[in-house]
Design goal:
By secondary structure, the chain is an all-alpha fold. Helix content is 91%, strand content 0%. It contains four helices and no strands. Helix 1 runs antiparallel to helix 2, helix 2 packs antiparallel against helix 3 and helix 3 packs antiparallel against helix 4. The longest helix has 29 residues. The model has no long low-confidence stretch (mean pLDDT 89).
Length: 106
């Protein structure tokens, strides 16, 4: 469980860097780093699904999946500011909620 907590904390920091790159119109850098962030967020969702019964965080997992879909739509539309907002606010908020649930169960 500590590994999941560490992944969430690191991912939040990585998201901040990706969002900042998009806000500063360093799109190539943002997209390069975004690939890794999405991969780790997907691993977090998978981990949550595996341990969900003990931690009751299915709502947070669904919120995270919804935000990822919105982020994908923003990428398709090449709206990097919206993408940065989704990363910085929606996905980070979902990760905060997951982190709080994990800490509350430890």
């Amino acid at each position: 469980m500590e590994h999941l907590e560490e992944m969430v904390i690191k991912t939040k920091k990585d998201i901040e860097g990706v969002a900042e790159a998009f806000y500063q119109q360093r799109d190539q850098e943002g997209f390069e780093n975004l690939v890794e962030v999405i991969d780790v967020v997907s691993k977090i969702v998978t981990s949550i699904e595996k341990i969900n019964a003990g931690y009751e965080i299915s709502k947070e997992s669904l919120d995270l999946e919804t935000s990822l879909k919105e982020a994908t739509e923003a990428m398709v539309n090449k709206d990097t500011v919206l993408l940065a907002d989704i990363l910085k606010y929606d996905i980070t908020d979902s990760l905060d909620n997951i982190l709080n649930k994990i800490k509350g169960q430890m």
